[in-house]
Amino acid sequence: MVFREKFGKDMNGDGGISFPTVPYLPEGNEEWKYSMRRSMQEIVPGVYLGPYSAAVRSKLNDLKKHGITHIICVRHTLEAQFIRANFLEHFKYLILDIADSGTQNIIQHFPTVRDFINDTLESGGKVLVHGNGGISRSAALVLAYVMEKYGLSSKDAYELVQQRRFCINPNEGFMAQLREFEPIYKAQRILQHGQTSGDCIRNKRTCDELEDSEN
């Protein structure tokens, strides 16, 4: 399905909540090449997803050329020796300790990532989200951001992000948490806009999950 036809429209969530139009980036339709796995791609304006190889010391000029000002570095404690925050003097970092494991609780990090990305964009900056391969952990975080920002299901968000970075493949545990996240962010949006909480009352589990994710 063509990117513009599927996503280039206003989205509405539960309770009539409106979401921004998903921006169309024409270069996202270029043919995917295997070598592109080693570089970063712009998923939505100002938000890049890629591997650690896009943020190694030799890539400083490339990062600056693309206007990167902030970096989200996703790594497990055991990986800290080879997945490093190389440019603390050049970029603002958010470093997250997340293992690429199906049992890892990644949903707890979604609000932190959302706020970091929003702060970046509001300040006129651009952010790179990377893990090791830019395939599972970092992809899941970008998927969650896109879901909440544009009111998408996990399935539609996956399709959108994959059109920009074809090699994404979050583990099954992360995908399950992304599916669980959909009613959570929608309930949160309803409450934030001061609308009726009837949906939350009818679905107490969703509201409990929302509260847990904020704690």
Automatic annotation (TrEMBL):
GO terms for molecular function: F-box domain binding. Pfam families: DSPc (PF00782). GO terms for biological process: negative regulation of SCF-dependent proteasomal ubiquitin-dependent catabolic process; regulation of ERK1 and ERK2 cascade. SMART domains: DSPc. InterPro entries: Dual-sp_phosphatase_cat-dom, Prot-tyrosine_phosphatase-like, STYX-Interacting_Phosphatase, Tyr_Pase_dom, TYR_PHOSPHATASE_DUAL_dom. PANTHER family: SERINE/THREONINE/TYROSINE-INTERACTING PROTEIN, SERINE_THREONINE_TYROSINE-INTERACTING PROTEIN. Belongs to the protein-tyrosine phosphatase family. Non-receptor class subfamily. This is Serine/threonine/tyrosine-interacting protein. It comes from Rhynocoris fuscipes.
